[in-house]
Amino acid sequence: MTYNLVWFKRDLRWQDHAALAQAAQRGPVRCIYVVEPQLWLQADAALQHFEFVRESLAALDQHLRTRGGYIEIHTGELPDVLSRLWQEAPFSGLYSHEETGNEFTYARDLKVGAWCRAHGIAWKEFAQFGVVRGLKNRDLWQAAWEKHMASPVHNAETLRFWQGPLSAPFTMSAPVHLRHNPPLRQRGGRPLAIDTLQGFLSARSLGYRGGISSPLTAPDACSRLSAYLAWGCISMREVVQQTRAQLAQLPPQASKHRASLTAFISRLYWHCHFIQKLESEPSIEWQNMHRGYDGLREQDFNQAYFSALQSGRTGWPMVDACVTMLRETGWLNFRMRAMLVSVAAYPLWLHWRAVGQWLATQFLDYEPGIHWSQMQMQSGTTGINTTRVYNPVKQAQDHDPHGTFVRRWLPAMRSVPDSWLLEPWLMPSSVQASAGVTMGKDLAIPVVDLAAATRDAKQRLHARRQHPEVKAAKKAVVDKHASRKQLGSSSKLNTQQTTPQQQLGFDF
Ligand SMILES: Cc1cc2nc3c(=O)[nH]c(=O)nc-3n(C[C@H](O)[C@H](O)[C@H](O)COP(=O)(O)OP(=O)(O)OC[C@H]3O[C@@H](n4cnc5c(N)ncnc54)[C@H](O)[C@@H]3O)c2cc1C
After folding, report:
1. Residue with CA at minimum distance from ligand 1 atom 31
2. What is the pTM of this model?
3. Whole-Å CA distances, 169 to 59, 279, 307, 358
4. Is 230 in the pocket of ligand 1 (CB under 6 A)?
5. What are 267-304's pLDDT values in tens digits?
6. For 136-146, how does the pLDDT look when each residue is reduced to its tens digit (9 = 90+)?
7. Quick one: which of 224, 274, 394, 434 could link to 370 by a disulfide (CB 3.0–4.6 Å)?
8. Number of other CB atoms surrounding residue 64 within 10 Å
């Protein structure tokens, strides 16, 4: 009997899995995941991503076995793997989710499409987020997002599996070249995603508003769903619907909790808004969104500054502590990510592409659409966003005034007296001696003069921004990528008749 092939990619769940549910309605299914050697050789891949995928697939396999099936792990490039499976037993359809990935997955999907056409196979792809493929106009985007999030979740009530070779126990080993697996990272799998969502909605979300900016409170106050969303252990629609259900249940006096959950839903909207940018213009992974900024940082990339950033030796304790936390946990809150990129892009004047490739390997939740859009936005190359420069000394003052965070992640800071926490490099030698800390050895000295280097960088960026041709080309970028400020009257996204970004003071 023929069957439908369900190809799992970054959608490692069984609930609200449109491809699985639709394939199952049409007959027996055969579930596969393909370890693509070339994909894992890309510069943005890391061992932590592979291990998270492996853990998520193990949970998926365990679930499928309770329903009489399992997931097959194949290794090879697509479409070679499809050819192998086809020769073994022809299938009638290929089912998967749309993927807004990197340059490699884009090219691979073109090859898969060509293979399907050559073999007369229908490849049915389903939207996995509120991202619209082939979008012509941003004006109707928000309504499309709402429609996707409000539609019922897909549930494969009955699953019949193709009866192929006897199933072997689940195994999957990482390519040997892969590096970087933070010891304290989140673990993969749908059950953990559900626990994380429930823990957030029932208790942790109370502290969301007001708690997400400081790296001290953010690990608990934020939802911590990003990796589960990025690898598809839970669907965006499930998260939106469950959050709205929780909002509807709150008593009238729970205004703080309501504000927190409303702010959280805005982030879920941004998730898709940013991925849409890469979907609509895949080249923003490697090329400036506004081409008028070409040539700005390409020439004078300073490798020594980049190495100092990567090794947590910039000399600014808040930056170095963030790099250390990221290395150990695979996660950092939004403000601290933005600060890292801002320091890289302005005082260190580093091009976003190299910094972004390194950060992609550091973030467990690496999601190309959000990542590259944010890298460009924080580096000032979109041409449509206000220049936002985060001063690492001020960030420490505002979000870690007692040094708890920097002392946790930079042991040498523990003996620095409180009065020198923000600028330890200014400590006189006598203070260094009595504290037992040698600047330049135990702690780095700033690689550049922060104020002068930032001023210089801003001037260079603003000079480019004022150029008549750069100004003239801005409209095309706005038309293609900017969010629309006006809400349609039927929108339920928020109740205050402002866009989510207006509520939070952002321009996208
Ligand atoms: C330079 C840079 C790179 C980033 N790269 C990624 C990335 O690769 N993957 C990723 O998921 N997020 C990325 N972000 C956005 C943000 O920092 C993370 O989504 C957030 O820290 C994840 O933690 P959380 O799930 O607890 O967030 P929460 O605050 O609980 O947010 C819930 C969800 O909303 C979405 N979200 C939150 N903030 C943003 C935002 N500013 N833009 C778009 N979506 C958002 C995410 O899906 C997140 O999981 C990046 C931010 C910056 C500044």
Report:
1. 267
2. 0.95
3. 13, 37, 43, 35
4. yes
5. 999 999 999 999 999 999 999 999 999 999 998 899 99
6. 888 889 999 99
7. 274
8. 20
